[in-house]
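Notebook, student rotation project (T.W.).
Task set for the rotation: take a protein with a known small-molecule partner, predict the structure of the complex, and write up what can be learned from the model alone. Partner molecule chosen: S-adenosylmethionine. Sequence and SMILES entered below by T.W., checked by me.
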Amino acid sequence: MTYATVAAEHDLIPPHPKEAAQLSLFDQPHTDDEVMRLFFSARHAPCVIEREFWTAKQRQAHSLHEISYRACFKPQLPAYFIDRLTQPRDVVYDPFSGRGTTAIEAALRGRIPYANDINPLSAILCRPRIEPPGLEAVIGRLAEIPFDEKREECDIDLSAFYHPVTEGEIRALRRYLIDRRESGAEDDVDRWIRMVATNRLTGHSSGFFSVYTLPPNQATTPDRQAEINQRLGQTPPYRNVAALIVKKSRQLLSRLTDRQRRTLKEVASHALFLTGRAQQTTAIPDESVALTVTSPPFLDVVQYAEDNWLRCWFNAIDVEEVAAKMSVSRSIDQWSAEMEAALVELYRITRRQGFVAFEVGEVRNGKLLLDEVIAPIGEKAGFSWLGTLINRQQFTKTSNIWGVKNNRGGTNSNRIVILRKD
Ligand SMILES: C[S@@+](CC[C@H](N)C(=O)[O-])C[C@H]1O[C@@H](n2cnc3c(N)ncnc32)[C@H](O)[C@@H]1O
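Predicted structure of the complex:
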């Protein structure tokens, strides 16, 4: 069988046709799994493989992931690489962790999660789901919180989002959580409640504290919300904060088995949650990470800090301070320099024969393929570029509603650059 036939069967596209001749890897027929095993293990010229590697239907994602975040990837993406490239108790890392999709998927599979993000919200959203309390403990703690206490000064006008009584409950909860943290009394139950409340602040259904607004990961400004209210003829209805926290907690925990709880417990004490720049992670020892699965901030597309202003307010985080440290690049040169520094740091912490799966989107309507920018930068940092996997997926309703930018022609593709430290 020639390379051309196997390539056609498996949708393999070598980057340069003349390199096809060197691909001993593909000179005989293989099953899909064998091709991928060889792709990750053998020495071969880098190649680009496009197909549907994982499907959302294939395996339902765990309920613990159901927290929204701008530009998060589906759990099936890290799961694919964790299963194939690591063993239980290996360290799996994400330097641009966001809501913590990689960390949670790694922990559920008995791997030790390391997570870093410049935005402190990331650890607030991720850590509690690796140390989940029981539902009864959450209900018990909520009963102790003085939701009717008025101690918060009204620093910002939230009346366009909330019924006055709901707003009072949110402010009381915020004050309670800040006090618990500052006094050193904060525990896993408080952290869980903080995470769920942060996620319920605003959204477009009655499951959120707010009146109908943008999706929860994209808070609009109070002025803009007032306009939305006027246009839709709506006033914020009363929402019971504690009841909605219980409802969401029940949903997040619904698929967590006792066995998974034990697995999470085993890895949680070794987990690492860092808040800082991916380019400088001194807390992570040299050559300690078996696999990194990550997706960096996109080029000039998403304002991760500003979109999260209300979540930051609730958690007493200074949005401007976070925005100043973030990699928001307007030019490809700026973005490449940021990514190069991140990859140099990844090279330091990756163990020998360890991998990096670096997911990038298609920006500017697919005219700019960032994987083609990342591959040579990865090699410059010291890695071998094994190739690029392009996961083709059917267009989904969720990505449509939430305006994910990388949908074209009814498909949603992830482009993942695969690097190995030899
Ligand atoms: C595409 S999102 C990651 C989403 C993540 N894969 C998930 O599933 O939630 C990129 C993340 O990079 C973070 N970020 C931006 N610049 C950073 C930097 N220099 N160091 C670390 N994190 C950064 C943003 O706060 C954002 O959470």
